[in-house]
Design a protein that fits this description.
558 residues, RibonucZ/Hydroxyglut_hydro, 8-stranded mixed beta sheet, EC 3.1.-.-, 25 strands, endonuclease
Length: 558
């Protein structure tokens, strides 16, 4: 669905305005802005990871344009949990205004603070836990325990005179969680009794029938694979999946193996998790990876990053033999994570590379080594039946996920008119239990490329794709400034084109003729002459070589 851009009217008194800025139609960039009585509350501020058609991009941020002139009105940023797609853009927001308070659980804030330290930002924080209520500006916030693939995740109830909104963050309903911390359905039921006016609910697995399997089902599989492995074991996972790392540590310890962490984010996050008591490591199990190479091959497990095929992450570098640890015959590699949409090709390239080196690669497709962190359709139906929300705004998912979630809401009795399929920038006003779409902001992607933020445009990315796929041709011609007659050239150089430069000899007379005709017509402007050159060689390359390379003509006056 593409909404027409339209500016919303001034917010009426006593009305809550809800604007998803990111996370709709995509897996990542989760960020929603709530406005009441002139004040703003932000829930989550995450990043999206680039796909193959975005070459050179490191991260993609939410478009802060919606709040650019209103940073002083922000009373806080609630962070539901510590995954990058919910906290990764916080440094870029705080670079604009450093004293915006961050609100979240102990682990979430510890992970954010470690990230901010790298950006030399010391944040103002408010640590909260489930069951706690806090008044933040005009927003009365209540925090509810939910389980996810990272500990300490929270849903947030937002009360204003306009009504009660419940935002789940990312969640599932694991009935036997590894840390014993259940999604608090009793709190959900209590909020349902009070009356939920709008429910913002995680859609990532809405099109998956049934229930998400239990995390604890993974432990025995990891134990079995590690127990049978003849040589080294390398496990790749998200650097924040503390429960999965705990299962690997337990399996390694049970089979007399030691564990070495690989990857900067893995080392950082697990150090924080152990210090705060979320990760329990038996004495003598951890070892520095530099010392690990002295151990026998059947006495080590490497816990690494790179489960999504990221080119610079540890596992990809191992597959390319660009790392100190080189997988080989008899090694076992376990990919203990899901595939984020868009990363499939990169992951399968890594699997192929490792298999070619002789490693036995165990992944989700051939063993039960990962379960999702998101509620499937059965769990979502439970939530709808418990809460009986007046209005539903599916969030956190691609378009098909949002649609599947809306269908579940309608199946459970929410009227279709009260189920809002929105996109990033859709402005929704809530008052007296009625939610109305009142506008659509024009929000785009903000690319981080090295040290530049927001300077790379879609046009630049298109140029990069052309350079990568079609090649580059430069044409240099020197013309007489007075007559327009060619003095030197045309000189043609090509890069990324299979043919030798000699192939362009046949087009040089065509370029010369086009320039002569332009000169006879009185054209002297170098920019206009460059376009003449571009058209002449472009037509020829397209017809003769069946290519559409980037063409950079230079016409120099002498």
């Amino acid at each position: 669905m593409t909404n027409t851009v339209s500016a919303p009217a001034k917010l009426a008194p006593g009305t809550l305005r809800v604007t998803p800025v990111g996370g709709l139609g995509e897996i990542g960039r989760n960020m929603t802005v709530f406005e009441f009585d002139g004040k703003l509350l932000i829930v989550d501020c995450g990043v999206l990871f680039p796909e193959e058609h975005q070459p050179g991009v490191d991260l993609i941020l939410p478009d802060f344009e919606a709040i650019r002139g209103r940073l002083d009105d922000i009373v806080g940023v609630v962070l539901t949990h510590g995954h990058e797609d919910h906290i990764g853009a916080v440094p870029y927001l705080l670079k604009r205004k450093g004293d915006i308070p961050l609100i979240g659980s102990q682990l979430t804030l510890a992970l954010v603070e470690a990230k901010l330290k790298e950006h030399r930002i010391k944040p103002y924080t408010l640590t909260v836990k489930e069951g706690q209520r806090e008044q933040v500006g005009p927003f009365d916030l209540e925090f509810v325990a939910v389980n996810h693939s990272i500990p300490d995740a929270l849903a947030v109830g937002i009360r204003t005179p306009a009504g009660l909104v419940l935002a789940t963050g990312d969640f599932k309903m694991d009935q036997l969680p590894l840390d014993g911390r259940l999604t608090d359905l009793r709190a959900f039921a209590r909020l349902g009794e009070e009356g939920v006016d709008m429910f913002l609910v995680d859609s990532t697995n809405a099109d998956v029938p049934g229930f998400t399997p239990l995390e604890r089902a993974i432990g025995p599989v990891l134990d079995q694979v590690i127990g049978k492995a003849p040589r080294r074991v390398i496990v790749a996972s998200f650097s924040s999946h503390i429960h999965r790392v705990q299962q690997v540590i337990d399996a390694a310890a049970a089979h007399g193996r030691r564990v070495a962490f690989l990857g900067r984010s893995m080392v950082r996050n697990m150090t924080i998790a152990e210090q705060l008591g979320y990760l329990h490591v038996p004495d003598g199990v951890l070892i520095d990876y530099k010392k690990a190479k002295d151990l026998p091959d059947d006495r080590i497990v490497y816990m690494s990053t790179g489960s999504q095929g990221e080119p610079m992450a540890v596992l990809s570098r191992m597959a390319n033999l660009d790392h100190a640890i080189e997988p080989g015959e008899g090694d076992t590699v376990i990919l203990a994570s899901s595939l984020i949409p868009g990363n499939e090709n990169a992951v399968y390239r890594v699997i192929d590379g490792l298999t070619k080196l002789g490693a036995n690669v165990v992944h989700k497709a051939n063993a039960k080594v990962h379960v999702s962190g998101h509620a499937a359709a059965g769990e979502l139906l439970y939530c709808y039946n418990i809460l009986k929300p007046k209005n539903v705004l599916p969030v956190h998912g691609e378009y098909r996920h949002l649609m599947a979630n809306a269908k579940l809401a309608q199946d459970s009795g929410v009227p279709a008119a009260n189920t809002i399929i929105a996109e990033n920038g859709t402005v929704i006003d809530l008052k007296d239990g009625v939610a109305t779409v009142v506008g659509q902001l024009d929000l785009g992607f903000v690319y981080v490329d090295g040290s530049s933020v927001g300077e790379i445009t879609d046009a630049d990315l298109k140029d990069r794709r052309i350079l990568g796929e079609e090649g580059f041709i430069s044409v240099i011609v020197v013309v007489d400034a007075a007559t327009g007659r060619i003095v030197t050239g045309p000189e043609i150089h090509a890069r990324g084109v299979a043919e030798d430069d000699a192939v362009f000899d046949s087009v040089k007379p065509k370029i010369a003729q086009a320039l002569t005709e332009a000169a006879q017509s009185g054209v002297r402007d170098p920019h206009a002459l460059q376009q003449v050159v571009r058209r002449a060689i472009g037509r020829w390359v397209n017809q003769s070589l069946r290519r559409r390379p980037m063409i950079v003509p230079m016409v120099i006056e002498a």
